[in-house]
Amino acid sequence: MAAPADHTTAHRTAVYLRATPERVWHALTNADESGLYWGHRNVSTWLPGAPWEHQRADDSGIADVIGIVEAVDRPHRLVTSWSPSEQPGPAGPSRVTFEIQGWRDLTRLTVSHERLADEAEVAEAARGWEAVLSNLKTYLETGHPLPQQPWTMP
């Protein structure tokens, strides 16, 4: 019997960074550092099954996104569920996979955001990930994030 059709929608993007895989991993998983370029602090123990929170970097402790760490292969792969903390989507949480691959002096970071509800969520995810990954690249390569938060650009 064939498996049921999968009607999920996804967004996938990659960025190449002049940084080691370990450095990219640290920037993604360190709460203080992620708050510098993401506008949110990624807070967790980063152990499989542990909760994680995407807390605002304004020290309010408010988590706009929550989830569970599904898989960890430090510093190469991290998988988390992803759900708005106020109103989880009707289809349940989406899933974000970070794949980190080093090669010579470069690292390719591929982000896959799966289980999105519809094309509008795919477009929103694309805008968000492009802005965050641009800011991460600038931060890791210069030591400073972009001068304005790119996700606020009209």
From TrEMBL:
Coiled-coil features, chain-numbered ranges: none
Top-level lineage group: Bacteria
Every Activator of Hsp90 ATPase homologue 1/2-like C-terminal domain range: 19-141
Family: Belongs to the AHA1 family.
Listed name of the protein: GntR family transcriptional regulator
Organism: Streptomyces kaniharaensis
